[in-house]
Design brief:
By secondary structure, this protein is an alpha+beta fold. 27% of the residues lie in helices and 20% in strands. It contains one helix and three strands; from the N terminus they run βββα. The chain is flat and about 50 Å long.
């Protein structure tokens, strides 16, 4: 799997079980669910999630951050095939 680069694009979407992590330029969206079981697969998923979160924290720590960003609503465009 390619290395996760937080806040670098608007297209990366990662999944673990039913948990989705979507990359954006101004935020990381995390939604869904993930059951980390007490077995080898649970350990693997926990490590992957930790890797993605560690990368996100490292990216944030390298910047001078504002108190809060303004989350703009997604722009809706008309379907060109109608």
């Amino acid at each position: 799997m390619a290395q996760f680069k937080p806040f670098q694009d608007e297209t990366t979407s990662l999944t673990l079980d039913q948990l989705t992590i979507e990359n954006r330029m101004d935020r990381i969206a995390v939604y869904g669910s993930l059951q980390i079981t007490r077995d080898k697969s649970g350990l693997q998923w926990a490590r992957q999630l930790k890797e993605w979160l560690d990368a996100t924290v490292a990216a944030l720590e390298q910047e001078v951050l504002p108190e809060q960003v303004e989350i703009r609503p997604k722009e809706r465009i008309e379907n060109p095939f109608k």
